[in-house]
Amino acid sequence: MEALLTPLVFEHALRIHVKAEFSSNSEKGKQSSNLIGRINNFVTTDLAVINDARNCIALISEIPFLLVFYAVFLYTILGWRYVATCSSSIADRVQLTAVVYVVHSAFVGIGITIIMAPIPIYISGIVRKYHAERMKKTDASVHILTDVVNIVRMIKIFGWEKRMLGKVSEARDDELRVLKKRQYMSMFGWAVNYGWDLCDITLAMKQALTASTVFSSLVVFENLQRFIKAIFMYWTRALAAKVSFDRITDFLNNTELLDIYDAPSSTDALSIRDRAQPPPNEIGFQHASFSWSGENGSDGAATPSGRRFTLRVEDKLSFERGCLNLVTGPTGSGKASLLLALLGEMHFIPLGPSSYFLLPREEGVVYAAQESWVQNETIKNNILFASEYDEARYKEVLHVCGLERNLELFEAGDETEVGEKGLTLSGGQKARVTLARAIYSSADIILLDNMLAALDVHTSKWIVEKCFAGDLVKDRTVILVSHNVKLVEPIASSVTLPEVLSDDTDEGNEDGGERVKSESKPDGKLVVAEEIQEGRISGRAVKLYTSAVGGNHAVFFFSTFLAMTVLTHFMGVIQTWFLGYWVAQYELPGKVPIVFYLTIYMAILVVVIASNTGTDLLFISGTIRGFRRIHEQLAEVILGTTLRWLDKTPTSRILTRFTQDIGSIDTIIPEWAKYAVDQTMKLTFKLTAIVILTPLFLIPGVAALAAGYTCAQIYLKSQMSVKREMSVAKSPVLGHFGATVAGLASIRAYGAQEMVTEELRRIDKYSQSSRIFYNLQRWMAIRMHVISALFIGSLTWYLVYVKKDTASNTGFSINMAVTFTGAIFGWIININMLEGQSVSLERIYAYVQIEQEAKPTEQGKPPAYWPASGELRVENLSAMYSPDGPEVLHQLSFHIKSGEQIGVVGRTGSGKLSGAFVAPVYLYYRRGHIQWHSYLFDELRHFMVQYYNYPPSGMFILSTMQNLDPFGEVDDLMLNDSLRAAGLTALRDHFTEDEDKITLDTTISGGGSNLSVGQRQIIALARALVRRSKLLILDEATSAIDTIIQASLRHELTGATVITIAHRLQTIMDSDRIASLVLDAGNIVEFGVPADLLKKKGGKLRALVEESNENSTLFNLAGTVH
């Protein structure tokens, strides 16, 4: 089932809009604002629920045959003079009590059952409603967790771990609150249905009973009990599966597709039919309009915040074939959307009969997005992508894209894994890898979205001269979006200024962290393979669960739970024995007082109901407590782990723990744990009852247990290994989903849908393991049925032909034997399922033990007024990314005064980010120290991040207000001031419609995908301003922001120590208070005022400036003459 539905969901995801998570319906938008989170939930939780209900199909075919068989059998024994009072509960724990007694017609009991049937049906409806509500809460919880895991680095840098843990716990509590209601309703259903027996017996128990009718029919009824129990158990699972099917169906039917996959409306069909044919081989638009959704026509697509995205080309806009076309324009003019519209990623709305847009694909199209998309593969495989390997062409591509020197920095060269989202590469390196992928392909049309913004001046010049003007691009059509007009204009055949466009997208890229030297081993592997445990579940993993469930008084909790369970099963045996004792009274002379025996029997039932209900209440309270605590522990260790561990662990693995494994702990493990305890008690009391009446059968009973145990050992050892393989095989599937959704536009542009779909065949490994898992169960079932038949047959022969005991004792013993052997198989299956599902517990326990950052201490806590200044002093600092890794910073020493603005420049791979003092959270010191306002960084390793600021592009799925101030600590006036200071006011001037503008109420999608890079940078900078930090580190935070906005920003940061990492030299050259720190391979080669450094002939900063196309402007900004 999973092997069928997983590719279905995946293939559908390949056809949806890049920004399909937005809807004009706000409620729907909230539910689907994180596409990756929704899909993860589909392929873990929902598919697991559907898979659990797969046996319903076989059960449906068995129901009529078994019901007829049981009816005929009972009629043969009892004729028309019996009634069976059968009560069945719904949901998770189902019990059926069968009491056989003689009355006028067999149809009395059937009539009672029909009359009472609406009650369990009604309760089933309530349970289904709670399940559907719980799945919505689970979606919300997974969305928050996906956000937190994706931006966990930002959370750690800002020191938000504890408060984010509170938000995660709040969402988890909402989910558990609904789960608790569902469990209580299931328990209530059981109590109500079991209580029916009291009413039925009181009304119908009026005549004599015989041992032959009681115990013969009782055995049949107990088999019928298990059958009906299975029916109701799978009915509950079927209801849950229906909810999951509905969720997946809604995703498949209501997620907006690209125009080429979606059936056009009647008006669109007319427009397309009547439209004039465009010239052959033309690339461009005419009288065209585009939106991110087709729901709102030409008005554009409204997001939950009310903003609309519309791109309009009023006249004709075309690109020349066989040359480089440069697309430039101001922020918000629609440059990025122009490329996506060409690719068909936006909804096309014709403005007239002559409307068209055209991008010929016969000779191939490739696309490099503004946010570089790379797979979790080697550098070489990322460049080759779907192309065949040609060594000469490959080496030439590496040369013209400036990657040769970078590959020398990696011990494994181009076999180095780039990690999830390219975490081993800097922003510039990722941009060049995606460029190399485009250039290496044989496609005739290349679309590049501002990839030069992530490169330093020297590298940009190299790319333009060697790549764009080289033989590999000759006669190919290149459409390049860029602000760097002076550098590209000399080789561009046409320059397009799309003033006719109206959109709020922008371009640019952030250099997400430079790495001087990879820490990869020579094989290039960064991501550590997931370890597969062997053998049985460890006691420590079991202790994690029991201590969480038991709470602070675990001994008292489990003692009480076991005592109540013992009482329930003891009274269950007494209930059956009392029937035999009652029957025996009819063989004695004298009248049997029916009311007396009926009262005792009803009292026994009341005790069973009360003890079982009390056990359930206790179990539900304990498991809910355990669910909450284990989830909290897992979230706590993920937020508290080291960044190095996060670098080595794919996000998909972490999310698998929070979805698939937590899902098992929430529902499957407690269910099987309860059943295992019940079956253990049942075995104990059934065997004890047999031995008391027939001591000789202690030996066969123990032998049956031993045989079952031996089979179970063989079975469990194989089954546990298979279950672990299943769990490990699921993570790569989730990782593939996430990576594919993140790069949809690039994948579709390359036409690589078939290739990535083929990669999904990883699910086959999971499916194979799953099939072996269930085949092992069949193997075990056959052997247990043989053991059961031998034991029951030998006991029956002995009682009838050898011992010749009374009818009541013989019937009681056989009844106990039948349920005993059935309990052996049930016990083994329960233990097996419990241990198999406990692999999830083991996997979570392994994560609870991962390495953690040092916890803050009171000694490292500065006074309340700290920091009063941003003074920094670095002395002889050498550092590395991991304790056993190579040095990335070498003996740095310098002093920065409070309020100074420091520029950090250097070529890609020079160690700019490392040198920008992210040491407290990113690096390990080998020697030396950093002192901030009289406190050493290593003393403030955790507390200092409350003041230390590095604004990345991480975004929550929240409003702009909540992204700026997630915890509601700042008033709206200050938030608006921060947005204004960060440049939002200047950006708004490009929009003529109010709905296009970003406000505090604007909803931001997962990762900020509904915003341009420039808008994300503005919000990140505004978030930094809200924090009012004395020390602010900006890593290419202004790469997509105009000069006017940068000037506004510098004014607002007066008084703070600002360290700016930049490729754009204008960012750090226009103030005489800015010092320039030049890094090369982790060493400081120059440090001083820009004007002084530019006067040094042969200096590094001067060389960078002279290589640029803006050297005169840069010299003027620095206050010196060229």
UniProtKB/TrEMBL annotation:
Record-annotated ABC transporter domain positions: 283-528, 872-1106
Keyword Membrane: yes
Membrane topology: Multi-pass membrane protein
UniProt protein name: P-loop containing nucleoside triphosphate hydrolase protein
PANTHER family per the UniProt record, alphabetical: ATP-BINDING CASSETTE SUB-FAMILY C (PTHR24223), ATP-BINDING CASSETTE TRANSPORTER ABC4 (PTHR24223:SF356)
Main location: membrane
Location in the cell: Membrane
Region of interest (Disordered), ranges: 499-520
GO molecular function per UniProt: ABC-type transporter activity; ATP binding; ATP hydrolysis activity
InterPro entries, per database record: AAA+_ATPase (IPR003593), ABC1_TM_dom (IPR011527), ABC1_TM_sf (IPR036640), ABC_transporter-like_ATP-bd (IPR003439), ABC_transporter-like_CS (IPR017871), ABC_transporter_C-like (IPR050173), P-loop_NTPase (IPR027417)
Keywords attached to this entry: ATP-binding, Membrane, Nucleotide-binding, Repeat, Transmembrane, Transmembrane helix, Transport
Transmembrane segments: 56-78, 98-127, 554-574, 594-619, 689-715, 780-800, 812-834
Ranges annotated as biased composition (Acidic residues): 501-511
Any GO CC annotation of this UniProt entry: membrane
Source taxonomy: Eukaryota, Fungi, Dikarya, Basidiomycota, Agaricomycotina
Domain named ABC transmembrane type-1: residues: 1-193, 562-836
Pfam families linked: ABC_membrane, ABC_tran
